[in-house]
């Protein structure tokens, strides 16, 4: 609370009640500073503030977008008039706003070279996105300048995020964009590292501290020395006012598996923004930075964003609420009634969802005699607002500014270097090891469950002896151990789904790739899977009483380890297809049941029906190769006495219960098949991630 109080002593919101005086601060100053001597007074968001000019940044919140097209599109973006000096940005003569040191002293945060972005007649169409029209964004015009905060405003499902994605070049392949986007006056594509994009809901890793989480970001993105990457992390922490939380676990809620008490939603949101700041982007796009934030977190977020803009960065973000001052609505005949929320009134005027409510309640009247201050269809209201805006001086000012920003090309943004593939794999492997060791639900819980299962199986099949009569029971014990242990792997589905979500979040900003993610996850899981395999194998091996030979024991451990690797790849591939806990679990259980039936225990494999059960089920069942290898390991070379004078080999003894090969090297071939299946499933995962999941995170 000390941080919030210190920040709020410097800044106050411009929101006020309808009864406040009409004189307002220019839109280029969204926050204001108290007069000297008034710092001890409490903050009031109801009374009209006493404004005073500041020599601070020319930070402005432009209400960039009126909504239109029947509530299904964002139309002509509006912007407040800009000082003539800002039009010189392309010539490089614009001076960046001064940087305010954090906490009122100390070293100032390094400046960021911003860039101007302009869009003309921008239209985005997506088939099936809207009921009456494919146009999600229609004929939008606007601009954003360095050192400013530019806001895209509109009701839910009005196309705010689509416009933001269009400006950032991140539309999905199903969308088509028309119009022009200029960066520093040219139509060039924004290269890697020149901009950052923060999703509305960003996946964070709850078991890492804020500093650790941010530290891994430049390791995955930037080349260079560790000391250089450490400095950009500290800059990002200071810029987003996270110094007090740098060594605190991010944590999370029940939905992200960690159950760790950590940061609140406001701090988590600032961490997601700080992750993009390590690249020191010229332009930063943020999709609803105030999403799910309370009033205190909202105030602190806006103060922090203002400070970020004062560093020179170009900020463009969406927001679901408006300020009191919106003259376009008044000029169009939709003034905000007294004692009514401006946000509710303005968004209601352009939100088609209210038409259905009005139709249901058309005979109702409130105390003022009307159900709503806007008593016409939303489509008509939107067309009226469009026409009013297009004929206004603001629209002419925007067009003039767009012309000045695009008449001459400025400096081209340069791509920043990337970290090598080997570096990324090493970083992801180490991060995976750290996360898996801290979050007990990844592998520690599975280790406990495997040990409990093995103890139950061991006690069930203990004391079998080594006689010929124990062969059938031993075959059953091995089958139950492999099959049920593999099925128990479903306990790892939530953690795998979380890893996929983190990958999607990082891949959308080119922090990671499909190959490095799969290899890093594979290498990171090996120590834990091997620990599970050796602990479970030792308990089962000695409780059931298998052959007392160290070499045979080591093969048993390696075979079961390969079985776990294959099962992990199978779970990961199914999780990539569904990306849902319920359907992934249901599909995995169904696949395991089919593999158990085809594994050759319930009916010997050469007696299975050829179509379907033998081909392909028996051949794609990793249970088959694992069980066959373990039984060959146990019985090839073993001799059983039949009476006093006759004996039979282990191969002959097991022949009536399970189909194995007489060759002593067959168990190693089965091991190679399991290894090939482990890599094959991960190859499937690579294809799904590279060509399936990434189609919706196009840059």
Automatic annotation (TrEMBL):
<dbReference type="Pfam" id="PF00005">
    <property type="entry name" value="ABC_tran"/>
</dbReference>
<dbReference type="InterPro" id="IPR003439">
    <property type="entry name" value="ABC_transporter-like_ATP-bd"/>
</dbReference>
<feature type="transmembrane region" description="Helical">
    <location>
        <begin position="443"/>
        <end position="465"/>
    </location>
</feature>
<feature type="transmembrane region" description="Helical">
    <location>
        <begin position="671"/>
        <end position="689"/>
    </location>
</feature>
<dbReference type="Pfam" id="PF01061">
    <property type="entry name" value="ABC2_membrane"/>
</dbReference>
<feature type="transmembrane region" description="Helical">
    <location>
        <begin position="582"/>
        <end position="604"/>
    </location>
</feature>
<dbReference type="GO" id="GO:0140359">
    <property type="term" value="F:ABC-type transporter activity"/>
</dbReference>
<feature type="transmembrane region" description="Helical">
    <location>
        <begin position="471"/>
        <end position="493"/>
    </location>
</feature>
<feature type="region of interest" description="Disordered">
    <location>
        <begin position="61"/>
        <end position="107"/>
    </location>
</feature>
<feature type="transmembrane region" description="Helical">
    <location>
        <begin position="514"/>
        <end position="544"/>
    </location>
</feature>
<feature type="region of interest" description="Disordered">
    <location>
        <begin position="1"/>
        <end position="28"/>
    </location>
</feature>
<dbReference type="InterPro" id="IPR052215">
    <property type="entry name" value="Plant_ABCG"/>
</dbReference>
<comment type="similarity">
    <text>Belongs to the ABC transporter superfamily. ABCG family. Eye pigment precursor importer (TC 3.A.1.204) subfamily.</text>
</comment>
<feature type="transmembrane region" description="Helical">
    <location>
        <begin position="550"/>
        <end position="570"/>
    </location>
</feature>
<dbReference type="InterPro" id="IPR003593">
    <property type="entry name" value="AAA+_ATPase"/>
</dbReference>
<dbReference type="GO" id="GO:0005524">
    <property type="term" value="F:ATP binding"/>
</dbReference>
<keyword id="KW-0812">Transmembrane</keyword>
<keyword id="KW-1133">Transmembrane helix</keyword>
<dbReference type="GO" id="GO:0016020">
    <property type="term" value="C:membrane"/>
</dbReference>
<dbReference type="InterPro" id="IPR013525">
    <property type="entry name" value="ABC2_TM"/>
</dbReference>
<feature type="domain" description="ABC transporter">
    <location>
        <begin position="117"/>
        <end position="387"/>
    </location>
</feature>
<protein>
    <recommendedName>
        <fullName>ABC transporter domain-containing protein</fullName>
    </recommendedName>
</protein>
<keyword id="KW-0813">Transport</keyword>
<keyword id="KW-0472">Membrane</keyword>
<keyword id="KW-0067">ATP-binding</keyword>
<keyword id="KW-0547">Nucleotide-binding</keyword>
<feature type="compositionally biased region" description="Polar residues">
    <location>
        <begin position="75"/>
        <end position="96"/>
    </location>
</feature>
<dbReference type="InterPro" id="IPR027417">
    <property type="entry name" value="P-loop_NTPase"/>
</dbReference>
<dbReference type="GO" id="GO:0016887">
    <property type="term" value="F:ATP hydrolysis activity"/>
</dbReference>
């Amino acid at each position: 609370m000390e941080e919030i109080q210190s920040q709020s002593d410097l800044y106050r919101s411009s929101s006020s009640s309808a009864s406040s005086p009409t004189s307002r601060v220019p839109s280029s100053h969204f926050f204001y500073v108290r007069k000297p001597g008034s710092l001890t007074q409490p903050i009031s968001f109801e009374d009209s503030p006493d404004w005073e000019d500041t020599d601070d940044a020319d930070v402005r919140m432009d209400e960039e977008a009126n909504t239109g097209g029947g509530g299904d599109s964002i139309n002509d973006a509006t912007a407040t008039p800009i000082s003539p000096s800002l039009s010189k940005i392309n010539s490089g003569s614009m001076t960046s706003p001064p940087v305010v040191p954090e906490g009122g002293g100390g070293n100032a945060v390094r400046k960021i070279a911003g860039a101007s972005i302009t869009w003309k007649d921008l239209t985005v169409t997506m088939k099936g996105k809207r009921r009456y029209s494919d146009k999600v964004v229609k004929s939008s015009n606007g601009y954003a300048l360095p050192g400013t905060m530019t806001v895209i405003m509109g009701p839910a499902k009005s196309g705010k995020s689509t416009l933001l994605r269009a400006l950032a070049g991140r539309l999905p392949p199903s969308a088509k964009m028309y119009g022009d986007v200029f960066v520093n006056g040219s139509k060039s594509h924004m290269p890697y590292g020149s901009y950052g994009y923060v999703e509305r809901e960003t996946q964070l890793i709850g078991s890492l501290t804020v500093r650790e989480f941010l530290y891994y970001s430049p390791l995955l993105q930037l080349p260079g020395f560790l000391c250089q990457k450490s400095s950009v992390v500290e800059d990002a922490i200071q810029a987003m006012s996270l110094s007090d939380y740098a060594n605190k676990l991010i944590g999370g809620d029940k939905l992200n598996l960690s159950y760790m008490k950590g940061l609140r939603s406001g701090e988590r949101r600032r961490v997601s923004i700080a992750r993009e700041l390590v690249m020191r982007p010229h332009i930063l796009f943020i999709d609803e930075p105030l999403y799910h934030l309370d009033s205190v977190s909202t105030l602190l977020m806006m103060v922090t964003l203002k400070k970020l803009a004062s560093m020179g960065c170009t900020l463009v973000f969406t927001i679901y609420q408006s300020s009191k001052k919106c003259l376009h609505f008044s000029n169009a005949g939709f003034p905000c009634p007294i004692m009514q929320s401006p946000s509710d009134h303005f968004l209601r005027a352009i939100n088609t969802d209210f038409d259905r409510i009005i139709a249901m309640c058309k005979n109702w009247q409130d105390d003022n005699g009307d159900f709503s201050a806007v008593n016409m269809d939303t489509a008509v209201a939107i067309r009226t607002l469009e026409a009013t805006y297009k004929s206004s001086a603001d629209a002419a000012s925007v067009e003039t500014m767009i012309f000045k920003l695009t008449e001459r090309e400025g400096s081209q943004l340069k791509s920043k270097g990337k970290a090598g593939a080997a570096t990324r794999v090493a970083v992801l492997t180490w991060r995976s090891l750290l996360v898996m060791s801290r979050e007990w639900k990844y592998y520690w819980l599975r280790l406990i469950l495997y040990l409990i299962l093995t103890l139950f199986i061991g006690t069930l099949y203990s004391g079998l002896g080594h006689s010929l009569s124990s062969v059938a029971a031993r075959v059953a014990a091995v089958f139950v151990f492999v099959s049920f242990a593999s099925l128990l792997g479903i306990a790892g589905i939530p953690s795998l789904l979380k890893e996929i979500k983190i990958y999607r979040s990082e891949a959308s900003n080119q922090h990671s790739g499909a190959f490095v993610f799969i290899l890093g996850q594979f290498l990171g899981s090996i120590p834990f899977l091997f620990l599970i395999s050796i602990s479970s194998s030792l308990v089962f091996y000695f409780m059931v009483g298998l052959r007392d030979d160290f070499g045979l024991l080591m093969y048993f451990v390696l075979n079961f380890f390969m079985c776990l690797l294959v099962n992990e790849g199978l779970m990961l591939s199914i999780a990539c297809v569904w990306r849902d806990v319920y359907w992934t679990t249901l599909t995995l259980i169904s696949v395991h049941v089919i593999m158990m039936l085809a594994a050759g225990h319930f009916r010997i494999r050469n007696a299975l029906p050829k179509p379907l059960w033998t081909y392909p089920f028996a051949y794609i069942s990793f249970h088959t190769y694992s069980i066959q290898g373990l039984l060959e390991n146990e019985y090839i070379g073993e001799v059983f006495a039949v009476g006093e004078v006759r004996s039979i080999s282990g191969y002959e003894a097991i022949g009536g219960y399970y189909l194995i090969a007489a060759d002593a090297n067959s168990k190693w071939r089965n091991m190679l098949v399991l290894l090939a299946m482990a890599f094959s499933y991960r190859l499937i995962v690579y294809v799904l991630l590279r060509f399936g999941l990434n189609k919706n995170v196009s840059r």
